[in-house]
Amino acid sequence: MKRDNPGSLWQQSRNFRRLGYIVFCLALLLLSSRFFTSGQQAPVSSTSPPAQYQAAAGNLAPAAVSPASVPLAAATISEQPLELPPNAKGLGTAETGNVPPHLPTLQNIVASADLGELAQYPPLQDPWGDTLNPGGGVPDRGYDTYYLDANEPDRPYLRRNHPFPAIWHNQSSYLNIPSENFAVYWIGRLEVPQTARYQFGVVQRGQGQARVSIDRRVIKKSDDAGIPDIELRRGSHIVEIEFLNNEAAQIGFYLTTRPTMPLYTAQNLADALKALNLPADTVVYAAITEYVDINSRSELHISADQRPYILFLPVGPRNWDIRTDNNPPQAVILYHKPSTIQIDGKEPPLLQWDQGIPYAALARLHDGTPDCYCTATSGTFKCNRGGFDDLGTFAAQVRTWTGYPLAGISFGRSHYHTTVPEIAVTRTNIEKSRRLSEQQMAEMREACRSTGSKGQRDVNTLMKGSKS
Known about the structure:
With 468 residues, this protein is an alpha/beta fold. It has two domains: 51-259, Jelly Rolls (Sandwich), CATH 2.60.120.380; 264-452, no CATH class. It is built from ten helices and 26 strands. The radius of gyration is 32 Å and the shape is extended. The chain starts with 5 loop residues before the first helix and ends in a 16-residue tail after the last helix.
């Protein structure tokens, strides 16, 4: 029997020919895809973190890359960036300095700025920004923040955008950079709607050094204690801060900027509030916070109480972030030390007050701890009566200062964000706090009496009683 050859099968079978065409097309597609992928590999960054960070960075979760967090090296960190205000943008990168052509750059803004009084200040020499941000990128809102190791200052470890030029950290390192080598560069834009005098608040820890400049004019050098009020002309101005921490175990710096405001005292604060013609049923909420986040920010969430209220913030310095739930305060009383206010909704009148209250003093109101002490050598028991260890006395003081009743207080003892108020100031709560305080005072007095009954100790004879 004669067998068909391949040629005759091709000629005689239509289905066979169709199968051949399909196989040929699939092979062609496969070859094409391999050719294009081999010629277009994904780009790989050639930048790597400093050698001392590579081992430590490998075990940490990667930070999210977004307009708010732009890594400048292949390093990773464990902390996520702060949430930015709406439409905040971090523009450009330190490697390339790329800035979209339609956006103003540092160089454009400085060149066109009306210096006015700033012209009296010395020019900024050897600015960090020329190295870290050669393209002159300026964020639309907030501050682009460059984190550096002073041993390799031209190789920034990370760039982020934050609402404030601030950092507050009680550890010996941050982002795996030892605190003694830690450095930061901030750049932001200050919009001045009309020519006015501006005030500046600076908080700086320990041995840190800082230069603060506006439009490349130095308004604070490393050895200056503060910044005087300065008239700023209408328009856009560039604010740059260069900070070198120079201290082990902790990191701390921040700057506040706002139009110059009157400073009220305990004698005239009530008159200033009265002039605002607030509703008759207005009350006062006082808020203090023990904790702040890395940017010295305290977040306050106002409760659903719909009464008109004054927000009293007697501690500082802080960057206050106030979430009002559509019930903004009628006014805010702010301790005048460097502090800022961010508030959703309508911006209320802001009154600067000259009398700060230490957090430790007000914290006694939380658990009724009396402000008392015992002198061990004599067994003398004494109490300070400053009004900060009794809720009723403090409420009476607030009414004297403001002209309005204190309705609630918050302490923020467990986290940097807290609800306002945490404790309602009522007759029941005042009496409860006093009973607790009296009980603790009795225990402290008894402990002190017991200590005093042992007699006065003397350094020269302390060991005699221990000999058998």
